[in-house]
Design brief:
alpha/beta; eight-stranded mixed beta sheet; eight-stranded parallel barrel; elongated; binds phosphoenolpyruvate; binds magnesium ion
């Protein structure tokens, strides 16, 4: 870097800092800043464009363009050169702007006189704030040093905006993080919640982006990086001999922490006048911008590692962010980019709601949130950048909507819904002990799905008659190493103790597809949902299957036991697994352990193929449970994890209901008990139709038992069957409209 640019840049940043300390507010300050930049860079024009809303940029201050255009000239993302900079997050530097790709002439600005154009994005940690532009008459490309210097200035502008430097009287600029915003995502656990934002990883606020002693800043950076390196080395030492993948991540951290390129870039930023923390953040912002463009999963992971490392470095430098759970605000709503199931369990039921920027409906965090019955919305773009700790927030887990800093009218509407929900809960509590018998005398068993100890108190609270699906993999997923057999015995014992004699169906380990054990070697598969998962893994890794079976038999210790194998696609798989159960029983007997009083071994019907298995299978299996989540995805060939298609096909589609009726018939012909344990069992309208099709046991989330029981108690399944049959004869694709109308007529 040329020394001249360095001195100029430091001088400019010094003046910007004076500006920040000055009394001037909002617009006046922004005007003075554009003047300062134009003067320092020796360009005739300097303009600042800021986002008005997500898609619109507005000229907010200018030196050199027509003053009347300020707050009038607007462009959309991608429109003109300014819009191109905003959209791509990349610099545009051209000597001949009118001939450049995407140029759009804005007559009101008088910019036709200027030939050179240099635009750099104003962004902060992936959050796009605007564009900083300099222009000059002379047709010349700006030098690399000038571009670099302007990027540094843009970084400082972003920090100033974050600190509210341009907000104030006459500013015509909305303060950041103060307006109310409504954001949408995917509903992952229903329910409403009102509370205050708790950022899982709080934003580090850099209050001193500019520093005038580069020597001191370099020292601070070096000291912090040293502390970071020592920390990473310590983590590596502790992890030696442990999990390989965790080691790989730490090795990547160490590589970055020792990266000369990374250090050099930050030192150059400091030489131009940035403080150490601003330099870290500038590099982090650029890495985040790259992350948005990289599609290779390996590279994305590495950039995410770098991002994490930068966060650690920022925390060391600023001393911020080392909060712990004891600082939680009242009614905390957790906001995170993503969160692991272990972390979420640590927060536990203290959370009122959860909003994730990424996440997915089938992720482990979602499973935990559901077990804890905490409203959850996933895929909420921008939430981690929009929300600040302590902000008022409302979560609508039914619709997948989040209201941040809501207006009173919105807050009141959501509060009404919360009150209605509480009333409904009272109603459900009053029918908790009532057996589920429909108006026409059909007895339906309502049991619950579980997977964590945290679920078990719900057995009594919800009125569930037992556990129809205990997902044993959750205990494996939330740890970072394979549990020991003795630990499993203790866990299963505790589950059976808590059930107090009610039946619990333990499903053996269902891993693979979306459920990946962090400590098991990950096998890259082209199509994981159709791949090596569930019973397929169990049969190929007999050691794990045997260990789990032994643990279950020992935990039962003379009590009745029900075991169910997931994802059985053909009868032989079930026979082989059953053979393993028999062998394990023999071994346990030889070892002198007490065997269960009774043992039932069932299969989950999750692939259409099993519905067409030979009669022998239905005669031999002790019970069948339809895993509707998987069955539906294979029946309709629509990935349950893919937002684009997962809601495309209705459970009440005539084809699917006919298929369910066939399964019921096959089970009835051999007197094989049948249940349904997918999510649809917990949706009142779907549950009604499944019952009408002949399903007599429905297993669902505990929170769904009340609503499902309430509709079943009022239903006449005989007449519902007629409604469904009529709709089918009329050739309707889904019976939903007919069923909904029937329900409305029933009141
Ligand atoms: C199902 O597929 O319906 C099921 C209950 O299993 P999981 O959701 O755990 O795959
Ligand atoms: Mg399944």
């Amino acid at each position: 870097m040329a020394d001249g640019t360095e001195t100029e840049s430091r001088k400019l940043l010094g003046r910007l800092r004076e500006e920040m300390a000055s009394e001037a507010a909002g617009q006046e300050r922004l005007d003075r800043i554009t003047h300062l930049i134009a003067d320092s860079i020796r360009a005739e024009v300097c303009s600042v464009y800021l986002f008005r809303d997500e898609d619109t940029l507005e000229l907010c201050a200018t030196e050199g363009l027509a003053p009347e255009a300020v707050h009038k000239t607007r462009m959309r993302m991608g429109e003109g050169l300014v819009g191109r900079v905003a959209q791509s997050g990349k610099v545009v530097n051209t000597a001949d702007a009118p001939s450049a790709k995407g140029f759009r002439y804005m007559p009101e600005t008088g910019e036709e006189r200027f030939s050179s154009f240099l635009g750099v994005p104003v962004q902060r940690l992936g959050e796009k704030l605007g564009v900083l532009v300099v222009q000059s008459r002379e047709a010349r490309r700006f030098s690399a040093d000038e571009v670099y210097a302007l990027e540094v200035v843009a970084m400082v502008l972003a920090e100033m905006a974050e600190l509210g430097a341009f907000v104030g009287e006459g500013a015509a600029l909305s303060p950041l993080h103060q307006q109310s915003v409504q954001l949408s995502g995917g509903p992952a656990q229903e329910g409403y919640a009102e509370g205050h934002v708790w950022l899982h990883e709080p934003r580090v606020v850099v209050t001193n982006p500019i520093a005038d002693d580069p020597h001191r800043e370099r020292e601070r950076l070096n000291e912090a990086v040293e502390e970071l390196r020592v920390g990473v080395d310590k983590m590596l030492e502790i992890s030696q001999g442990g999990d390989k993948e965790q080691l790989q991540v730490l090795e990547a951290y160490r590589m970055f922490a020792n990266s000369k390129g990374w250090m050099r870039r930050m030192e150059e930023d400091i030489a131009l006048g940035l403080s150490a923390e601003a330099a870290v953040e500038k590099e982090q912002s650029q890495a985040r911008a790259r992350m948005g463009q990289v599609t290779d999963p390996y590279l994305r992971e590495r950039l995410a590692d770098l991002d994490d490392l930068s966060n650690r470095l920022l925390r060391i430098l600023t001393g911020q962010g080392n909060t712990n759970g004891s600082d939680l605000p009242p009614d905390p709503i957790l906001i995170a980019r993503n969160i692991g199931p272990g972390d979420l369990l640590e927060y536990g039921r203290s959370l009122k709601g959860i909003v994730l920027e990424e996440g997915s409906v089938g992720s482990h965090a979602t499973i935990v949130a559901r077990a804890l019955a905490i409203p959850l919305v996933v895929h909420v773009g921008r939430i981690t950048t929009e929300a600040l700790n302590g902000d008022h927030i409302l979560v609508d887990g039914d619709q997948g909507i989040v209201h941040l800093r809501p207006e009173d009218t919105v807050a009141n509407a959501v509060r009404d819904k919360i009150a209605m929900q509480a009333k409904a809960q009272e109603r459900y509590a009053s029918i908790r002990e009532t057996p589920t018998v429909t108006r026409d005398g059909e007895r339906i068993n309502l049991v619950m799905n579980a997977g964590l100890m945290a679920d078990l108190p719900s057995l009594n609270n919800s009125g569930a008659e037992g556990v129809g699906l205990f997902r044993t993999e959750l205990q494996f997923l939330i740890r970072n190493q394979m549990p020991k057999r003795s630990e499993l015995v203790t866990q299963y014992q505790r589950v059976l103790d808590a059930a107090e004699g009610k039946r619990v169906i333990f499903r053996t380990l269902d891993i693979g597809s979306d459920k990946v054990l962090p400590y098991m070697k990950h096998v890259a598969e082209p199509n994981p949902a159709l791949g090596w998962r569930a019973i397929r893994v169990g049969l190929d890794k007999r050691g794990v299957m045997r260990m789990q079976l032994q643990a279950l038999l020992r935990a039962a210790n003379g009590r009745p036991l029900s075991i169910m194998f997931p994802f059985v696609a053909q009868a032989d798989e079930f026979y082989e697994a059953r053979w393993e159960v028999n062998k394990t029983i023999e071994r346990e007997k030889r070892l002198g352990h007490i065997l269960p009083e009774t043992l039932e071994v069932g299969a989950m019907l999750e692939t259409p193929s099993l519905a067409f298995a030979p009669q022998k299978f239905f005669d031999e299996v002790d019970f069948v449970s339809v895993g509707g989540n998987d069955l539906k995805q294979f029946f309709f060939a629509a990935d349950r994890e893919n937002e684009l298609v997962r809601r495309r096909y209705d459970t009440l589609n005539v084809s699917f209901l006919s298929f369910i009726a066939q399964i019921v018939e096959r089970c009835n012909s051999s007197n094989t008990p049948l249940s349904f344990c997918g999510e649809d069992a917990g949706r009142p309208v779907e549950a009604l139709c499944l019952a009408a099709m002949g399903i007599r046991t429905l297993s669902m989330r505990p929170a769904s038992i009340g609503p499902v029981k309430s509709v079943l108690l009022r239903a006449d399944l005989q007449s519902l069957r007629k409604i469904i049959a009529d709709a089918r004869h009329r050739g309707e694709q889904s019976v939903r409209p007919a069923v909904m109308e029937w329900l409305r007529n029933q009141g």
